[in-house]
Every structure is written in structure tokens, then in C-alpha cells.
Amino acid sequence: MDKQLKTRPDKSFGQLWNLSFGFFGVQIAYALQSANISRIFATLGADPHNLSYFWILPPLMGILVQPIVGTMSDKTWTRFGRRIPYLFVGAAVAVLVMCLLPNSGSFGMAVGTTMIFGLIALMLLDTSINMAMQPFKMLVGDEVNEKQKGLAYSIQSFLCNAGSLVGYVFPFLFTYIGIKNSAPNGVVPDSVIYSFYVGAAFLILCVLYTTLKVKEMPPKEYAEYHNLSETDNESNANWITLLKNAPSTFWKVGLVQFFSWFAFMYMWTYTNGTVAANCWGVDMLAADATATAGYQEAGNWVGILFAVQAIGSVGWAMVLPQIANRKFAYALSLVLGGIGFAMTVFVHDQYVMFIPFLLIGCAWAAILAMPFTFVTNALEGYGHMGAYLGLFNGTICIPQIIAALVGGVLLNAVGSIQSNMMIVAGVALVIGAFAVGMIKDKK
Question: Where are the beta strands (DSSP E) in 203-357?
Fold first, then answer.
């Protein structure tokens, strides 16, 4: 690597926007999944102590799929690009599965069969969303110079939050315009089913836009801009070897990621029960809790709260670039999020609940943008960018899997009160904030 590194030219704002616009559609799908998984499976008949187990599938599929997609796309060169074919195929499969998952309870199957069908649909949805999601991170690493990466990931963060906001409010919006928000026991309401249908349409249209607007660098040009030979990035990448050679920043950011994603797993799993109990007075220990109108109304409101979180995240994402010390910005964001999680336990008004979720949005903004900025800058000149980012996704998936596995045990430990799990999440974020101090920031 003694040759002079050729600097990638600056891109216009429009080019950076086009690079990530498909992520808007992917995040609508992801938001619908994250806001409604607990609601769907609780409606189908899942025990609250087992809810966290349903959340094992999303990160499990991520840790299996994303390194494979990263490694394969490193060696893929087609007339359509190297990353784009994977995101397009993933999006196409996700559209099909999004039309099946919310209908799991509508086919007249027994409860056990319905659960199995729902789990298979969820597994396929997670696989396809992960296949569509990861290439967008890789596109920025491939196409954008170091100077603009912060801006590029901020745009991606904005589109991510905007897509999340749209996906979160769909069930509430459809209920508002008159679509039924109730259904027979064990059946998902139409407000949720239609939300998934419309989200699927948004997903494929947005991905098509990026597919048509973005032209990836050919192999020779890519090698010149990344200080590699044309064969460096195509050689077989042994994951163990790559991990051994990874820069220390890869691991230090990964530690922060562990506590961050551990926390957010519990937000997605237990917010519905927290809001139903605190703001609607639903006894979540009762056998028929999920069949009550209050639980379904709380389910819609959770979408609104997650949308408020997305708004807070968009606003905070504009503040983050103005803070010169990126490590301080990262740590501060996680502390604010931790405070927000702890506050949810003490709030009993559905509108006052906006305040903690705005604070949680601050942490989310940093989690979306900061880790990839630190890691992609540290990886310059290493080659195998896709494989490394696929492996880095393990720092997102592994903590979620661990959190899901121990969720039932921790829920018992805190008295089977779902809102207490939000305090556990807040503590995890504060620990993550302290871990930020170990990161070395490559300017």
C-alpha cells in the first residue's frame, strides 16, 4: 500500500441523497415490523414472558445474512453494480412476506399452527429486510470520501428516521380514517394489515428509485480510490482472519454497540405493555390483557410514540454535526436516551410520554450515524469493506439475541412488570456512554 491514495471526488447533496433514498422504504418496512411484532404475536396468543423470544429472529437473521451479503457483494461486479442487486432482491422478497405476516391469524389455523406460520413469515421478512438494508451502508463506504461520510450517514440517518416515522404512524392513521382496529380473538386488526400492504408498496418504489439513479464504480476505479489492487477486494475473505486483523476501533465501537442495541431490544419488546399499563390502565398480568380495546389502542399509540422518537432523532441528527467532539456527542446522546428510558416508568399520561421518547430519539440518532462513521474511516485501506461491515453487523445482532434470550428471566426478576424493563434499558445505555471513552477517533 505504498502507492498514492486517489481521493474520491465530492458528491453533490442530490447524489448523496439518491445513494440512500431506498433506505427510506426499507425503514418503513423495518418500522412496521419493530412497532408491531410484539403486538401481532401477543394478539395471536403469545405469553408476555415469551415475547422476547420472538425477537431473537430479527438479529439472528441479520448476523447470518449480512456477513454473507457483504462478502458476496465484495466479489460481485455486474452491469447493475455490486451492492444494488442484493438490495433489490431483498426488497422484492420483503414485499411478498409483508403481505403474509399480518395475516397469520386470518387463515383459520389452530393457535400453534398460526404461531409457526407467523414465525416462518417473520424469519423470511427479517432475512429479506437485512439483505436489502446492509448494502446501503456499504454504498456509502464504497462511494463517498472520508470528508463527506459524516454528511452521507447523516442523510441516511434522516431518511431512516423519516421512513420510521411514516411506518410507525400507519396503524394510528388508518384507524383514524375508519379502518377497523379490532378483530376476533387471535386475529390481527385490519389497521395493522393494511399498514403492511402500503409499507410494502413504499418499499419497492423507493428501492427502484435508488436502483435507477445510482451507478456504482467499476472494479478498476474502485481499486484506485480505495488504494487496492483490482484483486484485493475479490480474494477470498476468511472471516476469522478479517476479525483478527480488524482495527481496534472496530472492537471498541462494537462494545458501545452491545449496550446500545441491548437497550433498544427491550424498548421494542416491552413498550406496548408499558404504555398499555401506564396510560390505559390495562392489567398486563391478566390472561385476557391483549384482547382488551385498551391494549389495541395502546398498540396504535406506541406507533405514535416511536414516530415522536423518530422526530427527536431527526432534530438531534442536525445538532450532532455541530458538536466538534464526536465522542462527546456520541456519549451525550446515549445518556439522554438512558434518561428517557427511565422516565417512561413514571409517566402515566399518553401525551407526556412524548418527552421520554424525544430523549430516546437523541440516542437513536447517534446509534444510526456515529458507529459507521468511526468504523468506515478506520477501515480505509483494509479492503473487503462489505465483509467487514457485514461482520460489524454482529455488534448489532449479538446484543439483541442475548437480550432476547434473557428477557424472560429479567422480566421475572423485576416483578413481571414490563415497564421495569425500560429501566434496564436505560442503565444499559448509560454504560454504553462510558464505553465511548475508549474509542479512538480517526479524523
Answer: none
d(CA 273, CA 286): 12
Give the number of other CB atoms < 10 A from CB of residue 246.
18
Alpha helices per DSSP H over 21-55: 22-44, 51-54
Q: Is 140 exposed, middle or buried (0-12, 13-18, 19+ CB in 10 A)?
A: buried
Q: What angle do CA 402, 404, 407 make, to 5 degrees?
A: 105
Take residue 167 and report the three cell numbers written for it. Answer: 411506518
> Can you say whether the dihedral through the CA atoms of 37, 40, 41, 42 is positive or negative?
positive
Return the closest-CA partner of residue 385 out of 287, 292, 250. Answer: 250
Task: Please report, as a single letter, which amino acid is at residue 268.
Answer: W
| Alpha carbon distance, N-terminus to C-terminus of the chain | 20
Instruction: Give the CA distances from residue 152 to residues 19, 23, 51, 364, in Å, rounded to whole numbers and listed in that order.
Output: 9, 12, 36, 17
**What is the largest distance, in Å, between two alpha-carbon atoms of the chain?**
68
Q: How far is CA 283 from CA 47, 148, 295, 341, 421, in A?
A: 14, 50, 10, 21, 16
- CB 25 within 8 Å of CB 163: yes
Grid cell of 358 as nine digits: 424525544
- For cell 474511516, the residue is 377
The pLDDT tens digits for 243-261 are 787 888 889 999 999 999 9
The average pLDDT across 113-137 equals 80
pTM: 0.75
Tell me what pLDDT residue 394 has. 82
Please choose, from the candidates 66, 77, 121, the residue with its C-alpha nearest in 3D space to the C-alpha of residue 98: 121
Q: Are 282 and 276 in contact (CB under 8 A)?
A: yes
What number of H helices and E strands is found in the chain?
17, 0
Euclidean distance between CA atoms 94 and 13, whole angstroms: 29
Cα gap 398→396, rounded to integer Å: 6
Q: What is the DSSP letter of 78?
A: B
**Separation of alpha carbons 356 and 339, rounded Å:** 7
- What is the tens place of the pLDDT at every residue in 140-158? 777 887 778 778 877 887 8
- Looking at this protein, which amino acid is placed at residue 224? E
211: amino acid identity, one letter: T
7-11: long-range pairs with CB below 8 Å, 24+: 7/145, 7/225, 8/143, 8/144, 8/145, 8/225, 9/145, 10/145, 10/147, 10/148, 11/143, 11/144, 11/148, 11/152
